Amino acid sequence: MALTDSTFKKLQNIVGNPYCSRKKEDLICYAYDATARTYLPDAVIFPKNSKEISGILHVANEDHFFVIPRGAGTGMTGGSLPVEGGVVVVMSRLNRILGIDKDNLIAHVEPGVITGRFHRAVEKEKLFYPPDPSSSDFSTLGGNLAECAGGPRAVKYGVTRDYVLGLEVVIPTGELIRTGVATAKGVVGYDLTRLIVGSEGTLGIITRITVKLLPLPETVRTMVAVFDDMETAAETVSEIIRRAMVPRTIEFMDNASIRCVERYLNIHLPVDAGALLLLEVDGKEKEVDELIDQLKTVCISRGANGTSIARKKEDIEKLWKARKAISPALFQYGPDKINEDIVVPRSRIPDMVRKIAALKEKTGLTMVSFGHAGDGNIHFNIMLDKKNQEELKKAEAAVDALFEYTLALGGTISGEHGVGITKAPYIAKEIGALELRLMKKIKKLFDPNGILNPGKIFPN
Ligand SMILES: Cc1cc2nc3c(=O)[nH]c(=O)nc-3n(C[C@H](O)[C@H](O)[C@H](O)COP(=O)(O)OP(=O)(O)OC[C@H]3O[C@@H](n4cnc5c(N)ncnc54)[C@H](O)[C@@H]3O)c2cc1C
Q1: What values do phi and psi take at 221, rounded to 5?
Q2: What's the pLDDT at 266?
Q3: Pocket lining: 78 vs ligand 1, CB cutoff 6 Å
Q4: Would you say 458 and 115 are in contact if contact means Cβ atoms under 8 Å apart?
């Protein structure tokens, strides 16, 4: 569906000429995300409020073009890509923190706010918004909600959906709805808030968000435990969970991640280690010290070679910089990446680690694993050159085997990156036919003309 001149004129009239473009150089900037796939949109538009977004969706229904919401384009499954063309709606101008309500421990915020900026704003008030995807320096809250982003702190604090109380959303018909509450709880009617969080921009465009906040933890302590091999590290994670210890993060890096981050940042990581765990604890000073001691004991008793505690802000920042740099650093291993985001029950992490080792051995491919071990969430990456057909075939077969095994262990094929386009071909492996039909009916109810973010979640 090409965009006609008269349709483009209507869009310009809604947002003003400077905020709507069909120039190739602008389109290219909004044609990609972290999947490194590219699809050129027909136009890109920068509305400033829900009224303008409603206007855009009304025109889309009248003139039949697709609309694709976009935050910062850091999505890992292609959610913001205009796979069938259309108009990319960039949320960057809806970027106000509308209010931090200290009396009620909630905040109202627009979706284009960068997550890290929001963290800093609430922390200034001694409050805490726990969801912290590793992309928090550049991803938006709207994108986080649409994907139900997780992140390292999910072990203790849960994921984005656990903090969203209410929403303002423009649904695909152009109508504006309000969902949820601005109170600590509320159960009136179906929970549309929870339906929209994680719906990957297919049911509506989020224009305002109400989240709950927590008190800022008094103390944070970060510990690194070094292991000879991944299996021992994985067994240790399972043991920590079995003992019902709750640090706020348990991240792991395998040897390939450690090496490539070290090459990228040169910050003296232990490059000969088979794996390392990054454990972080928060709370009151005394509790934190006690839990760190207990974690240290478990790590050593389960076979860690050593542990070290970072106390200085610079040292803690250095460790997190290393962890957050893995994704971009991986491209040292190959021009293309197949990136999966599986989750297994936490007692089964060692089984999954063994499976990955076996796949690596069998295929001879470069595989790198890291991620949120405390949630059983493994970011499994195959680095390759997709032009090499033999490598690609082997990699695809390895992904199939990995998904089969994940589901056999009682896991899920996507912990936090969504389905988008990259996992759409696999959704029926996990979701039953009846449930899938119900989901498609919900989509149809919200979006009778199928104009919002087509080609996502459900395979064509
Ligand atoms: C280096 C790196 C590290 C990452 N680490 C993590 C991690 O630890 N945990 C994690 O969960 N993810 C992680 N991600 C993935 C990604 O950052 C998250 O999915 C993030 O939530 C996407 O936000 P975004 O603003 O970039 O959204 P985009 O990529 O622009 O969009 C993502 C989806 O949200 C939809 N969308 C965007 N804004 C709106 C809106 N206002 N209303 C409705 N739909 C909307 C889009 O249509 C799309 O479907 C990482 C990515 C990178 C590159």
Answers
A1: -130, 140
A2: 87
A3: no
A4: no
Report the DSSP pairing between strands 87-90 and 97-101: unpaired
Model-wide pTM > 0.85: yes
Query: From the CB of 327, is ligand 1 less than 6 Å away?
Result: yes
Buried b / exposed e along 201-214 (16+ C-beta atoms within 10 A): bbbbbbbbbbbbbe
Atom of ligand 1 nearest to the CA of 141: 25
Cα-to-centroid distance, 308 and ligand 1 (Å):
33
- Give, for ligand 1, the residue of 57, 76, 264 to mutate: max count of ligand atoms closer than 8 Å to Cβ: 76
Question: Could you give the CA distance from residue 169 to residue 190 in angstroms, rounded to a whole number?
Answer: 16
Which pLDDT tens digit goes with each residue over 180-189?
999 999 999 9
Q: How many whole angstroms separate alpha carbon 1 and alpha carbon 33?
A: 22
Distance, first Cα to last Cα, the chain: 17
Q: Which residues are within 8 A (CB) of 17 and not within 5 positions of it... i.e. 6 or more apart?
A: none
**Distance between CA atoms of 320 and 279, rounded to whole angstroms?**
11
